[in-house]
Write a structure and sequence with these properties.
Layout (H helix, E strand, L loop, with lengths): L6 E7 L6 H8 L5 E6 L6 H6 L4 E4 L5 H11 L6 E4 L4 E3 L3 H5 L10 E10 L2 E3 L7 E8 L3 E3 L8 E3 L4 E11 L4 H23 L10 H9 L6 H13 L6 H29 L1
Parallel strand pairs: 1-2, 1-4, 2-3, 6-11
Antiparallel strand pairs: 4-8, 5-11, 6-7, 6-8, 9-10
Helix pairs in contact: 5-8, 7-8
């Protein structure tokens, strides 16, 4: 039996009526089962998902890591492999045909997948963003997520990772207002993460390169570091080659977001 037929997909959702059908249709006919862990959506997310005979669990959202670890611990998986895919993502064409060609799966515990990013209608290829690689497919009982409030990473117990060229395409269809609101929520979370890192209250796994990079980034002065990072990504790492999309992405995702994080850090520092 091919690996795709032995796979269950996990999707975390909260008000994803715009995306969920597209995500489900990109994988449904190729894998055995899809499960959703929903954070009490109040739109049509669940109604749409149930049309496709998808099993839905509900759990109050704390962070992605806790949602995923809850799923791994409490859901009975009757497949050998688990795929993590976000509601606003789809797999590339022929993803499962390529997956089924991977050999020596008995010796592999996790498969690294390339994440292709799109932002406000355009693809991001430069600026130190692509290619981003993540372990999104792993053997049942072979992994768990580190206990991070954000930037979570799966830890494979007996690490034998296959570095594939398979692609998952991140293509959020929501507009600018959604991203601005999201940035305010995430900036507050990241400011809390900053103090945890600063006070060494969390242990960073050596495999979590995102957090290791952030720890280095936080050595630079507040307010100055977002400007430095913008220049690094947009000019040094050639984000400008993505044209207007690249400019929008780096102004919003790098400069604006990082300034927000620093403002939350300053606010908390003054209070304390």
């Amino acid at each position: 039996m091919k690996v795709a037929n032995k796979t269950t997909a996990i999707i975390l959702t909260h008000n994803e009526e715009v995306h969920i059908e597209r995500c489900i249709l990109s994988i449904k006919k190729f894998i055995k089962k899809i499960v959703i862990v929903d954070s009490f959506s109040n739109d049509k997310t669940i109604e749409i998902a149930k049309k496709y005979n998808v099993k839905v669990y509900k759990k109050k959202f704390v962070n992605h890591s806790k949602q995923l670890n809850w799923a791994l611990k409490n859901i009975k998986f009757d497949t050998s492999w688990i795929l993590r895919i976000d509601a606003d993502e789809i797999v590339e064409k022929n993803f499962f045909r390529k997956l089924n060609k991977i050999t020596k799966l008995n010796k592999i515990n996790g498969i690294e997948i390339v994440i292709e990013h799109n932002f406000l209608g355009g693809r991001i290829k430069f600026g130190d963003v692509f290619p981003q690689k993540q372990i999104r497919l792993w053997k049942k009982n072979a992994g768990y997520f580190d206990d991070m409030p954000m930037d979570e990473k799966i830890i494979i117990k007996r690490a034998n990772i296959y570095k594939s060229k398979l692609k998952i395409i991140d293509y959020n269809l929501k507009g600018l207002i959604f991203w601005i609101k999201k940035h305010f929520r995430y900036a507050k979370k990241e400011s809390e993460l900053y103090f945890l890192l600063k006070n060494e209250k969390i242990r960073i796994d050596k495999e979590n390169k995102t957090l290791l990079k952030k720890k280095f980034y936080y050595r630079f002065p507040v307010i100055v570091r977002p400007i430095l990072l913008f220049n690094y990504r947009f000019f040094v790492k050639k984000g400008f080659l993505d044209g207007f999309t690249g400019l929008k992405f780096n102004l919003l995702q790098t400069l604006f977001y990082r300034l927000l994080v620093d403002l939350f850090i300053i606010k908390k520092s003054i209070k304390d």
